[in-house]
Amino acid sequence: MTDAQTLSALTTARLRLRAFEPRDAGRIAYLAGDYDVAKMCARIPSPYPTLAAEGWLELQAAALRKGEEYAFAITRPRDGLIGSCGVVRVAGEPHAFRLGYWLGRPYWGEGFATEAARALIGWARETLGARRISASHFEDNPASGAVLRKLGFVKAGPDELFSLARGGTAPGDRYEWRAEADSLPVQ
pTM of the entire structure? Predict the structure, then answer.
């Protein structure tokens, strides 16, 4: 298990992934609260009040202390926080995780999700012993499917996904990545 004191920053060519800080709440609410971002996520409301983002940060800190969830702030030198990327431990499966990520709309289409998730998956393998990672995306978000395929995920079937912002479920696709396949491409 790791805790907030050992959740070290990850650096990529263009990004820095770091532990969330209380001062991030306003930026999280602003970027993630955009309906076009929130509707692609399970647990993000739209609108997203800063107070709710502060509550989410507290929940993340508690989940990190328990070794259940590891969320990183995706930052860029000139912009600060631009999104989030994390893994959640699958209950009862010590080496299995679920991957999730979001980026603020101004940062879509730049390859940041792929870059951040690649770093996170490497960290999860080395630090948490991840051997299997699953992820899903809504059908109306094919860009997320492209990110997952670039990372070596393989489509595992359809999925019915919940979104707080949508107020219900919508069809999606489920993907799997396995460490045995050594399927984490560099590019």
Answer: 0.93
